[in-house]
Task: inverse folding
């Protein structure tokens, strides 16, 4: 396993936006016009290829339809994105619906973990993997967005260029969220009523003024598909896993979390089993089983309930390239293109990220274009939250209220 290299360099572009949904979208559209144009041109390139089946149908969407998918505020942001970039709203909606469709089986994945490192530091990390990047590798350029919506809570979100909502992040109230799809066969016919996952995440970051309110929002808001949302309190290290399947939601507080792309809670609620050899009977994809077992093998939890890794090296777990189905368990190829779906660092990885409480930093390691060379695989950008999101202070709650450390 490679030793992570940390640099205080802008490996990931940080974009600051503020104002109404439309104004924030407009600013993003202006800033990312070139990247968006390139992505949409790539769609035209594959329109008549085998990859066309992965594209959402290109058609006009009414505001009512968009609000059902994304909510009113993010629909306004989509309109702003189109106006700022000068690109078609229809094409931008297609971009969002192609990358993260309602029925996401096999199309996206990740791993996530949260808990205490061996040195006592709270950590929360995740990978985002999107199979769509194998068809259009330059359609998802990673970006970090610092959002300051009018009358709402400032936040830092990971949002690929041209996509709305959030794919993970934290806000000035000390709420941190990550998410992954649940790909168990039991969820193959996922409900298509409710908000898209990114919209749900964005609503939580924009509005949750406490860890408790974030957990409540994750439980009350219906969302499409089957997904797991990890919610953590950056000040106290509390962790809650929320698994959502339409309007069926199961939540549980836990001292540590380790998860891949299958259910830890919902499967039991729906009558499944979480033990031993019954994983195959439950219809868990092999790649998720392999990554989950590898995570548990690496992230050993000691008698004190802590991971055996310290906070300075635990990020390397997210870049692990072990595959039990390859010769000697590890890919010997030099290029990133020879990674597999069974590795924690999947072949379709877009980025890895880690929050580290000891120095209040957010680490990001992008894998997508233009960072595909092997030499950049473990180069992390270390961002000081004190600098990029000063509204969040670890010891004091946003807006000046004392934060409890109980």
Result:
């Amino acid at each position: 396993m490679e030793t992570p290299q940390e640099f205080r360099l802008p490996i990931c572009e940080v974009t600051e936006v503020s104002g109404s949904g439309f104004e924030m979208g407009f600013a993003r559209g202006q800033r990312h016009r070139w990247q968006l144009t390139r992505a949409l041109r790539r769609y035209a390139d594959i329109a008549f290829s085998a990859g066309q089946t992965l594209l959402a149908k290109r058609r006009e969407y009414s505001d009512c339809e968009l609000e059902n998918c994304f909510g009113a505020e993010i629909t306004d942001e989509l309109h702003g994105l189109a106006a700022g970039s000068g690109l078609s709203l229809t094409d931008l909606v297609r971009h969002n619906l192609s990358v993260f469709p309602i029925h996401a089986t096999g199309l996206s994945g990740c791993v996530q973990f949260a808990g205490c490192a061996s040195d006592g530091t709270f950590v929360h990390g995740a990978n985002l993997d999107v199979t769509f990047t194998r068809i259009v590798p330059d359609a998802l350029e990673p970006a970090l967005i610092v959002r300051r919506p009018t009358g709402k809570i400032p936040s830092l979100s990971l949002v690929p260029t041209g996509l709305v909502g959030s794919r993970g992040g934290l806000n000035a109230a000390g709420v941190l969220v990550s998410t992954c799809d649940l790909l168990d066969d039991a969820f193959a016919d996922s409900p298509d009523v409710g908000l898209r996952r990114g919209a749900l995440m964005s609503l939580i970051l924009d509005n949750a003024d406490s860890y408790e309110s974030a957990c409540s929002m994750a439980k009350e808001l219906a969302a499409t598909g089957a997904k797991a949302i990890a919610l953590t309190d950056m000040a106290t290290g509390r962790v809650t896993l929320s698994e959502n399947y339409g309007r069926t939601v199961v939540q549980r507080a836990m001292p540590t979390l380790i998860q891949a792309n299958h259910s830890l809670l919902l499967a039991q609620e729906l009558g499944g089993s979480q033990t031993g050899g019954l994983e195959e009977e439950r219809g868990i994809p092999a790649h998720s089983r392999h990554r989950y077992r590898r995570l548990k093998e690496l992230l050993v939890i000691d008698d004190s309930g802590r991971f055996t890794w310290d906070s300075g090296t635990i990020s390397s777990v997210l870049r692990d390239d072990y595959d039990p189905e390859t010769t000697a368990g590890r890919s010997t190829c030099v290029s990133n293109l020879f990674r597999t779906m069974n590795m924690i660092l999947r072949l379709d990885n877009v980025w890895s990220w880690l929050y580290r409480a000891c120095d209040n930093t957010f680490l990001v390691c992008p894998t997508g274009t233009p960072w595909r060379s092997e030499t950049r695989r473990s180069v992390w950008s270390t961002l000081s939250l004190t600098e990029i999101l000063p509204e969040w202070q670890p010891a004091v709650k946003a807006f000046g209220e004392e934060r409890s450390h109980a």
